[in-house]
From TrEMBL:
Organism classification: Bacteria, Pseudomonadati, Myxococcota, Myxococcia, Myxococcales
Superkingdom: Bacteria
Entry similarity comment: Belongs to the ABC transporter superfamily. Ycf16 family.
Keyword Nucleotide-binding found: yes
Presence of keyword ATP-binding: yes
Protein name: Iron-regulated ABC transporter ATPase subunit SufC
């Protein structure tokens, strides 16, 4: 198993957000997490990435059989867990490229590989940019500074193409992409599907899943996964709406 989430509970301050998540993802699989706004999708991704705001109160997460929750966010990234930033912190003056090379070299050091110098990294980056049809000027902009929604998403897939994570978590912005950007982003993601890699695609909308076809779909409501199924579940959800799901997720009286 690539990722095993067992009875995961998490809170912010005194507010319980995740209330017992179970999830098993094998290498090569793509799972979609859907659910209404506020159901805890982003919290789940943040907890997996190790953001400090969220406190895990129960449960466990195994990544390739090891205790993921025991690792710092940096060590999770080095181990191969990737989370693109939904609302990135802007770091003026730090080039996109510099940021990415630092991240890649941290991974390489941990694996006993030689670090890439600026030249070698540049050729790798240029090669990987093709996947999302980015142009070269993109590389030298500050990390997410002044990027449009579509550019941020492309940048996220580009980062993933460079870092080649074992597990990638893609948390969609609710603002949505135009159809061209959606196709490009989905095409990049699909090109990165492989039998070693797992993908967790978090989305409020069904339409992304027309392009990135998941092996399994899970629906969250109020901090729990209340339904799981195959890709048809996403379509059913599209026609029945989230009100249907919220009823399923209502705690027993
Ligand atoms: P989703 O991504 O499904 O829209 P979120 O995980 O963003 O859901 O939010 C789930 C719930 O947790 C919401 O009620 C939200 O207000 C709350 N929440 C998330 N993050 C925080 C935070 N940092 N501080 C306080 N409440 C939060
Ligand atoms: Mg939200
Ligand atoms: Mg969210």
């Amino acid at each position: 198993m690539l990722l095993s989430v067992r009875n995961l509970h998490a809170r912010v301050g005194d507010k319980d957000i995740l209330k017992g998540i179970d999830l098993e993802l094998r290498p090569g699989e793509v799972h979609a997490i859907m659910g209404p706004n506020g159901s805890g999708k982003s919290t789940l991704s943040q907890v997996l990435a190790g953001r400090q705001t969220y406190q895990v109160t129960q449960g466990e997460v195994l990544f390739e059989g090891k205790d993921l929750l025991a690792l710092s966010p940096e060590d999770r990234a080095i181990a191969g867990v990737f989370l693109g930033f939904q609302y990135p912190v802007e770091i003026p003056g730090v080039g996109n490229l510099h940021f990415l090379r630092t991240a890649l070299n941290a991974q390489r050091r941990a694996r006993g590989l030689e670090e890439l110098d600026a030249m070698d990294f540049l050729s790798l980056a240029k090669e990987r940019m093709k996947l999302v049809q980015m142009d070269a000027s993109f590389l030298n902009r500050s990390v997410n500074e002044g990027f449009s929604g579509g550019e941020k998403k492309r940048n996220e897939v580009f980062q993933m193409a460079v870092l080649q994570p074992r597990l990638a978590i893609l948390d969609e912005t609710d603002s949505g992409l135009d159809i061209d950007a959606l196709r490009i982003v989905a095409g990049g993601v699909n090109a990165l599907r492989s039998k070693e890699r797992g993908l967790l695609v978090i989305t409020h909308y069904q339409r992304l899943l027309d392009y990135i076809v998941p092996d399994q779909v899970h629906v969250m409501s109020a901090g729990r996964i209340v339904l799981s199924g195959d890709k048809e579940l996403a379509r059913e959800l599209e026609s029945k709406g989230y009100a249907w799901v919220d009823k399923l997720g209502a705690p027993a009286a």
